[in-house]
Amino acid sequence: MDLRILRYFLATYETGSVSAASRRCFVAQPSISAAIAQLEDELGMPLFVRHSKGVRPTDAGQRLYPLAARLIADSEAIVSSFNRSGRPLPLRLGLMRSLGAERMSNWLKRLMERIENLELTLVNPEEASDARIVTAGMRQPHEIFEPIWNDRYRLALPSGHPLSLKERLTLSDLEEQPFILRAHCEATEALRLALIHQGVTIAPRAHLRTIEYSLALVAAGIGLALVPDWPETRRRLDMVLRPLVDFQSDIQIGVAYSTELSGTLQNALKEVCEQVADTFTNPK
Questions:
Q1: Of the candidates 255, 227, 256, the residue with the CA atom closest to the CA atom of residue 240
Q2: CATH code at 68?
Q3: Considering the domain boundaries, does residue 226 fall inside one?
């Protein structure tokens, strides 16, 4: 059985569309359709039912999927096992700013345990890279996106700030409050627009690029800031986090990569993302 055809089958099954499978595999749609037809002839039964929005797997397709996925994974494991005894497997990974040291270290540790001979180079997300950890909004059209975390943003206030006495805040509570703003942050931009819509004026005190510096200035009493509700942020004693009842911003973060990336790396990235997504959860 041709592994290439099985890869096309898996792509069609997972995307629910021949056209989407074509984009994922970087081959023409007729090639995907011909491969599926060849596989159906070989097995003697249809694997998909075509409909207006794509395809739906038949019972036979559902039976084949885990078997095909296991066979592809085994073939990748064979390649990986030989790679261990040979040259390192390089990966240039672009990282956006302010991902959180605790959870990012955990993610990288899992990835390097998954591929023992991995040679990792960390770069900025705008540089040439094999994969990038970015927000869903930064994903390029040609990239696959595997979600990892969903960051829910809260307002950070210095301990002892008058507003910290309230369990929940509104946008109007921020009128003329000193604020620390973070550049290139989707949540901060959404808050800025919401404040304009409500006619609320804040007093910017600093414009920064990283969450870490924003937290340091909040702790020093310089101003308020919108920050992700990470476990390590919640544990801090020099600040408090409060929700805004009339504003909510959740930012999805994951790994984006091209289908041109080797199957070994694709499988490893997907597996680690799924593992970590099950481990780190956000409060409701």
A1: 227
A2: 1.10.10.10
A3: yes
Look at residues 48, 65, 84 and tell me which one is the last residue of a structural domain: 84
Q: Is the Cβ–Cβ distance between 163 and 173 less than 8 Å?
A: yes
Q: Is the Cβ–Cβ distance between 232 and 100 less than 8 Å? A: yes
The answer on pLDDT for 4 being more than 70 is yes
Burial of residue 66, with CB atoms counted within 10 A of its CB: 0-12 exposed, 13-18 middle, 19 or more buried = exposed
pLDDT band at 278 (very low <50, low <70, confident <90, very high): low
Closest CA to 92 of 47, 116, 128, 46: 128
Q: For residue 131, which of 266, 280, 272 has the smallest C-alpha distance?
A: 266
- Residue 282, CB-side half-sphere exposure with 13 Å CA sphere: 16
Q: Do the beta carbons of residue 26 and residue 9 sit within 8 Å?
A: no
C-beta separation of 104 from 149 below 8 A = no
pLDDT digits (tens, 9 = 90+) for 119-154: 999 999 888 899 999 999 999 888 899 999 999 999
Structure tokens at 9: 């089958």
Enter the tokens of residue 90. 């390089």
Give, for 179, the enclosing helix (H) or strand (E). Answer: strand 178-182
Residues spanned by the domain of 71: 3-84
Asked if 251 and 81 touch (Cβ cutoff 8 Å), the reply is: no
User: Is residue 209 in a domain?
Assistant: yes
CB 155 within 8 A of CB 223: no
Tokens 């994969």 correspond to what residue? 131
Q: Which of 99, 70, 102, 108 is nearest to 275 (CA)?
A: 108
Confidence of residue 282 (pLDDT cuts 50, 70, 90): very low
3-state helix, strand, coil split of the chain in percent (to 5) is 45, 25, 30
User: CB of 198 within 8 A of CB of 169?
Assistant: no
